[in-house]
Write a structure and sequence with these properties.
293 residues, mainly beta, 2 domains, nine-stranded antiparallel β-sheet, Tail protein
Length: 293
């Protein structure tokens, strides 16, 4: 992943902006789309406000291809158009791509969504190496995420006073849950961050508990030693999948995934589950989230 300079963007591995074949004379960040739950006051003036839900944003680019001649300009235009077209994303439901942004005076941030329009404004000077373009990108939500992904791995600790007492009769039955040490996940932004939680077997009924509230997100299933399960709480995903692609949504208990965000600040979490071997793991990944870039 390329380190971006000020005034550069990156999509699908292609860097554009300052010093590149496609430059960005102007970039505009739109406000979040709002779905309002307003209703009119029955038989009178005014309205009653309901729930307001924030959607994604529209990002608008004014672009220019600026190369030595027509051949190199066309090559730069083609490369950008191929990255912007992204058929592997636009032809896959729920799929998004990452757009990395480092505008002037900013650190690098990431938004997730889909590139949409790419319109040539003028090709009159193509033979001289210049093409004017406009483009738009639609984000899946309103947040801007840190370029760096944070990650922690948790191990299960045996429940105190539990375990197998020898001699025992097979099959042995686990009855109590073990917990990991508590760990703090820190979201340095001002918007909710969305964790991606991966359980690595062997483990039965793996889950993550928020220590402050006691809320537990759990899968009522058993993972073998060579299986993993990933719970993706991000707004454009909201899935629970085993590593073979099977959905585990029906085994998910606890809060809605939309309610399992990491608020700004530190959140204490605990990994729970049943495991005789001591090999079970839980990995939690997240990016700090901000309401502005």
């Amino acid at each position: 992943m390329a380190e971006l300079l000020e005034g550069q963007w990156e999509i699908g591995g292609l860097v554009f902006g300052a010093g590149q074949g496609v430059i960005v004379p102007d970039f505009t960040i739109g406000g979040a789309d709002i779905t309002a739950g307003d209703t009119p006051v029955p038989g009178g003036d005014g309205r009653v406000f309901g729930y307001d839900y924030a959607g994604g944003r529209s990002l608008a680019f004014t672009l220019a291809v600026d190369r030595e001649d027509g051949a190199t300009a066309r090559a730069a235009w083609n490369a950008f158009a191929a990255a912007w077209n992204a058929p592997q994303v636009r032809l896959s439901p729920r799929a998004v791509t990452a757009l990395r942004i480092r505008d002037h005076g900013m650190d690098t941030v990431v938004v997730y969504g889909r590139p949409r329009r790419l319109d040539p404004v003028s090709t009159a000077l193509l033979d001289r190496g210049t093409v004017a373009l406009t483009a738009s990108f639609e984000t899946a939500d309103a947040a801007f995420y840190s370029d760096t992904e944070h990650q922690v791995t948790l191990d299960l600790l045996p429940a105190i006073g539990e375990g197998l007492i020898l001699p025992f009769t097979l099959p042995a039955v686990l009855t109590d849950l073990g917990d990991s040490d508590t760990t703090f996940l820190t979201n340095t932004g001002d918007a909710p961050a969305w964790p991606i939680i991966t359980f690595l077997g062997p483990v039965t009924n793996p889950g993550v508990r928020l220590a402050a509230t006691g809320t537990t997100l759990q899968l009522t299933t058993t993972l073998a030693f060579d299986q993993t399960a990933t719970v993706d709480t991000r707004p454009w995903a909201r899935t629970a999948l085993r590593n073979d692609g099977a959905s585990l949504a029906g085994t998910l208990t606890g809060p809605d995934l939309a309610d399992f965000a990491l608020p700004p600040g530190s959140t204490e979490v605990v990994f729970r589950g049943q495991d005789l071997t001591g090999d079970a793991r839980c990995t939690i990944a997240w990016r700090d989230a901000r309401s502005t870039p």
